[in-house]
Amino acid sequence: MAGSPLWALDVYGRVFSLSAARGRWRRAADLLLELKRVTGSQQCCWGIGCDQHVYLHVYPSQPPIRHQEETYENQRWNPVDGYTDTLLPTDRWQWTDEWGLNPQPLHSFVLPSANWEWEGDWYVDDESCGRESSETVGWEYAVDFPTTFTKEKKWNSCVRRRRWLRYRRYKALGSWAKLPLDRARPPPEPYTDISCGGWDMSDSPEKHISLWAVSQQGMLWFRTGIRQQNPEGTCWEPIQVPREVAQVSAGPKDLLWVVLWDGQLLARTGISKDCPKGSSWELVQPPNQKGAVHVAVGISVVWAVTKDNRVWFRRGVNSHNPTGSGWISIGGEMLMLSVGPSDQVWGVGSDDRTVYFRHGVTATEVTGRSWVAVSCLRCHLFHVAVSCPSSRW
After folding, report:
1. Ordered domains of the chain (ranges, CATH)
2. Residues 6+ apart with CB under 8 A from 247
3. Where would I find the Peroxin/Ferlin domain in this sequence (predicted)?
């Protein structure tokens, strides 16, 4: 992937990226951009700005993101004027969805944010790639609403409909764009942490991504509707948590852990492709009495940092046992950790604020062997996030 596999933030909120192809750090093109958290997937990444807004960055190497809007034009026949848009009071609206349950006039479709643009105007879909047919002009006929529509016009075809299409394209590829506020909802509380995952729960080509965020008040939020053709998602939904949350970490599959304000941890259970938000929580005691301040999860691993900056590994974690069975102390002192999709581990040193990579992590030696410094940045870092697909370093 030509995108940036590793993101780093310094204490001033400046954003840096490092890719295996480049081999060196590069600062984000937007010099005014300041982030305090960042999280990445295979197609895009999100960040929390110092201005409290959530930002989205879709990698420029991704194919064009196009979304199809559709609506149906409905008409009824009468003996005087033939087919017209004058419908019976009991009929559906003139412009509706496919099933006639919701009104959808052409002017009701608006771009979800300034990050999108229309590719063209509305056109009739007649199965000819947008070109109007001289025979049907896209009309389908039926005896009445609602029933089965066909292309063939019969003597008793009292109603007809045709589908109109319009495409919009995501135009903010390769740049950091503000995530739009949810329509008809009050602005959310400022977020303090963010994490994405879940894209490997299904083998479907259409990857759905789970985005989680923690607010200043300790609430946990889930962003619905994120997929490849809709990277911005739809809206934020609150997730019930028994106590206030300080930090969240989601893995590529079904692992999700949170750190509570008191230093204890919770593991989310019941997460699946059909239930991405999960169903319940299980309490996990911290590695030591000082309590946890940070947790990082991968496909089948969980790492934690306690308040004394010690690093811990949770053994026995898998999809059937998301809580694991016990903690193992790992050498080194870290400020925070980030686990990549291949369970490779990165961290920020607590003393020198540089980036470290956990050397020797394999499928049989999941804890690795040693920490190797990789940062050449002349600044103090406080956050890193891995977004590479599965590359080994």
Report:
1. 6-63+173-386 (2.120.10.80), 66-170 (no CATH)
2. 193, 214, 258, 259, 293, 294, 295
3. 64-125, 138-171
